[in-house]
């Protein structure tokens, strides 16, 4: 058993990331009104990038990166802050936020596979058992959400497929953070530039597909951009990427396994979400698998 300080070093950021990201699904849903999704993604990471680079200056990390660092930031930005989030926002045009959150819970699978292939990190027996239990819970949640979905079969398949592509893009970015390439640069500097590069590519994509910038002067939209940019991106990605370097991509991905449960709890409070035995059983299995997996030793490096 690791010492208490080591457990808290993992547990506190884990809880913060899970709670904040679990709440972002409701905010993203509110963003899908007047502004095209790609412009909303652009605004989100423009705010986030400025905040993270401000933090880099305050920490004394500076703003400069060598050419190799700029290349890393560009690759990270395109994978995480362009492909991933454009897929997320578009998936919510076809299926409910609950279904999208459940699809993203599968992030554990590609994270574990890519970590094994590119980082040599193995999943121990206890981590595998926990993953199987948690995935069984995710399956129950998925069935429950699919039954509630009012989208037709075609729209549901498009939404799920789009979300799955986002999962692959996010997993690629996650594994990048655990490489020696990532550790060669100050995290705040590289992350801040990755967000701004991503915002620039998002803007180019949005302009080419949806036309000139569109902005909605609605308080909930403005507040949503700030919430998603500052808390849902600048703070959480800084914490999450540090968590990846500490415990590896596979175990860090358990945040995505627990997030649908948090999202459903918040939906219960704010949207009148009604639980069923299927959803309750899925939530219990997810939490049980989480406990089993996080008590496992760190993956071999």
* Total number of strands: 0
Could you say which overall geometry the principal axes of the C-alpha atoms support? globular
Distance between the termini: 19 Å
| Radius of gyration (Å) | 19 Å
What does this structure look like?
With 301 residues, this protein is mainly alpha-helical. The chain has helices spanning 4-31, 37-59, 67-91, 97-104, 108-119, 125-148, 153-176, 180-183, 187-210, 219-247, 249-252, 254-270, 277-294. α2 (37-59) packs across α10 (219-247), α6 (125-148) runs antiparallel to α13 (277-294) and α12 packs antiparallel against α13. The protein is globular, with a radius of gyration of 19 Å. The two termini are 19 Å apart.
């Amino acid at each position: 058993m690791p010492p208490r300080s080591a457990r808290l070093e993992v547990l506190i950021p884990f809880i913060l990331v899970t709670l904040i990201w679990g709440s972002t699904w409701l905010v993203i849903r509110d963003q899908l009104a007047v502004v095209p999704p790609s412009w909303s993604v652009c605004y989100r990471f423009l705010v986030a990038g400025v905040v993270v680079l401000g933090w880099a200056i305050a920490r004394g990390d500076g703003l400069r990166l060598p050419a190799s660092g700029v290349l890393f930031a560009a690759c990270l930005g395109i994978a995480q802050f362009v492909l991933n989030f454009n897929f997320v926002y578009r998936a919510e045009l076809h299926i409910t936020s609950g279904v999208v959150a459940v699809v993203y819970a599968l992030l554990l699978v590609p994270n574990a596979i890519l970590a094994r292939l590119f980082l040599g990190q193995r999943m121990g027996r206890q981590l595998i058992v926990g993953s199987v239990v948690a995935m069984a819970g995710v399956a129950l949640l998925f069935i429950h959400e699919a039954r509630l979905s009012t989208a037709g079969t075609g729209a549901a398949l498009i939404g799920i497929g789009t979300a799955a592509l986002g999962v692959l893009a996010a997993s690629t970015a996650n594994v990048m953070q655990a490489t020696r390439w990532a550790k060669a640069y100050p995290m705040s500097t590289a992350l801040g530039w990755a967000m701004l590069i991503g915002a620039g590519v998002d803007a180019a994509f949005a302009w080419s597909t949806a036309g000139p910038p569109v902005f909605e002067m609605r308080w909930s939209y403005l507040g949503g951009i700030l919430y998603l940019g500052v808390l849902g991106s600048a703070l959480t990605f800084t914490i999450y990427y540090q968590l990846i370097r500490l415990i590896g991509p596979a175990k860090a991905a358990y945040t995505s396994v627990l997030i649908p449960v948090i999202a459903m709890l918040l939906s219960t409070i704010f949207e009148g979400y009604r639980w069923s035995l299927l959803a309750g059983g899925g939530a219990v299995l997810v939490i049980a698998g989480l406990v089993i997996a996080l008590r496992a030793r760190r993956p071999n490096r």
